[in-house]
Sequence to fold (412 residues):
Amino acid sequence: MASRFDGQLRWLHKVRVYPTCAQERALVKMLRVTRELYNALLQQRRDAWTSRRLSLTSREQYLQLTELREVEARFAGVYRDCEDAVLHRLDLAFAAFFRRLKRGETPGYPRFKPIARWNQLEFPHGDRALKFDIVQGRVRVPGVGAVRLRKGRVVPEFGRAFLVTKNGRWYAVFEAHRTVSPLPATGCSVGIDRGIRVLAALSDGTMIENLRPGSRRKAVVKRHQRALDAVTVKDAIGRPLNTKHQARIAAVRRLARAKESEANARRDWLHKVSRGVVQRFDCIALESLRMRSMTRSAKGTPEVPGVGVRAKAGLNRALLDAGFGMLASLIREKAEYAARTVIEVDARYSSQTCVACGCVCKESREGRRFTCVRCGHAADADVNAAQVILLRAESPPMRAPGTARGRQHYAA
Fold:
């Protein structure tokens, strides 16, 4: 994942870590202490406001935290920066609450955090707290010791860092700053039409396979879902009663890991595809799609029920399984790092427009083939749409009726 901060490209570098049993107990203890601290700070602010109409500032709570560390050994045993990050996280929650309140919205008040929703330790000055050995085989964590790292890419110079647990596994996430490294110019441009039949059709005729990891792993996920249902005791309305039973906890974890494996396969494939596209082309034209609107449910309301609800639900699953929203994000991130140009254009009528004569007619498309009713131009429907997208990006005055001028996001 990449983003911009203070004019620099910020990159999150994620590495699997393998703590021993004793180290894992220490990490779990740190998670429990920081969660209790967050809830205590939140309760203190709520009580101060409801009883005295007093708004506590973060500076006041910071000083009280210093006093608490002097009298409570378990809070003193946690690295101070982790506790400061908890206070900062609470500040961000309140800032978001008041910001939405000023906009006239009805935001939810910051909530207390249960165990299931507190799964990371933040080190604001991670480069000072986490130290690697010479070969980056282990990382020393304050209060935990030297934790073994998975062998892989070298972790670059970093600032903030996190230790995250997910489905019983631990990961270290480092926020590294990277400078732009331009790739050699190729002199080629491409338009990309994303879809379900193929993940992406390029304007040069290349078809990129849709891996469909969700469909391929559907049987495995269903098996774990049935196993979870078999060990779950439910009440009259279907709520689980044995959420803390060891057999159910193990079944939940197996199901979560199956879904995580599916997501990892999808992300890995999209990383490879986006890297190949960025390496081959200097200018990349994409459709401007709103995935949230495209995957909106068709259920409607009891008064006005939706039409084709089952079909729309199946389409939504296919769209999310393909992951072409993530594909566009990865292309933009890698293009910025490689100093490539990415342009988004309006996608309306691109599948009905002839790239040769510009005629817009829905009868021109029949399934997978496109045959223009005016000039007779014939091509694969997705390839023709990709060529139309490229034409709109390169020649805005020649764009089809009803389309908007392209938006350039990154320039070399």
The domain at 187-208+266-412 is CATH 3.30.420 (Nucleotidyltransferase; domain 5). The first helix runs from residue 21 to 52.
